[in-house]
Amino acid sequence: MEKHLIFMDIDGTLVNHQQEISDKTRAVITSLQKQGHQFYVATGRKYSSAVQIAKQLSEETQVVASNGSVYSINKTLYKKQLSEEALRVIYQTVVEKKLPIFFFGKHTVFYTRELPDYLQKNDQSRIGNDEEDFCFIDSLETLLCVKERIINGIIIADNHEEELKEIQAVLAASQLLSVSSSHPNNIELIPLGINKATAIEAIQAELAIPKERIISFGDGLNDLEMLQASGVSVAMGNAVDELKQQAKFVTDTNLEDGIANFLFDYFQ
After folding, report:
1. pTM for this structure?
2. How does pLDDT run across 109-135, given as a tens digit for each residue?
3. Which residues does residue 188 pair with via DSSP β-bridges, in sequence order?
4. Does residue 115 sit in the same domain as residue 243?
5. Which domain holds residue 119?
């Protein structure tokens, strides 16, 4: 079969709650890689965290990170960043609400309030990992001093859905950045005009793979553009309803080897 490009979200899609890839999923993907198909993880995570997951599959697995802000093509890394103007409006809008912001570099997490329990307890699989630096941002001036290191960010606040909706509306209206959400408790902060689909389109153009041979898997709203940019769009069984309605296919959940089951049937 001709070469396909396959993009997989990580959280809620490729891995389980313990950040593990099942043996079945790994075996199916490894077999397809040996046949010449190209696999990417495509995630809102920062680059170094995404690389850790990709390496659990193989050295050949490439990365789309930071919701499309960072991606690799044949080992060359491409990067877009939040502008200084975007950082200013994000900081001023969110600090006024006293909610936490995390900004991501390739390796560093910059945070504006206390670290949440899952980071304090060194369970850093979602935002960081054991090699990360954590840098506290105590003012707008401090933030702007590290602006060249920041790629994207996220606001995470449980039980603040109404405030998050207000913030998302303000940030979207600024037209200085793109905003999305992978869960009701967060707002993804992305460089203007960037999403997972823009990375896919750049990769597709460079590798000369037609849209009909692009497969993508996702579970959250920040996967919507990615699925729309793919000829074969697959929502996980645990995906939000809006994504299931937009996808061409719905597979099993991430805990039921949804990726492996779909790919095994598709490539038979």
Report:
1. 0.86
2. 999 987 655 454 444 444 444 445 889
3. 154, 180
4. no
5. 84-191
